[in-house]
Design goal:
mainly beta, Methylamine Dehydrogenase, Chain H, four-stranded antiparallel beta sheet, 1 helix, 3% helix, globular
Amino acid sequence: MSTAQVGSFGALVLVTAVAACGAGATGRDGAVQWRLGDKVSGGHASWGPYQHGTQLLDDGILILANYGGGDASHAQAIEFGLDGSVKRKFASRASSLFLGDVQRLPSGNTLITYSTGQRIQEVDATDAVVLEIAAPTSNAFAYVEFRQSLYGLPLDIQQ
């Protein structure tokens, strides 16, 4: 799984779930200019072998660490600064062995999807759950995206 977003710093950010790649940025010429794993203390191993559902922020990047730093039973959303500093770790409230998602909402709250944990949670700035959606036991969620409308571009892509 790969996603692409254009950041406010003008680089194209390619994010993938492949452990060797992690989150990174390439310039318009295709040359790698920045890798999250090179910036974070402990490198890519600090959040485990897989990440999904990333979102580039103006001053950082959100990732859903499927193995929450090595523990397959606790996925964790983590916000990193572009310098690799850990700005925030959200409480792990479910597992997500694969898939999953994380997104900052316009309200400032954060939407976390624990795919195989069968739940979606919206948490506020204090990490309190303000909304939870649970799927029936045998179902899983995949990726989610907040949209003001079904029509037009997502909020993080401006024309």
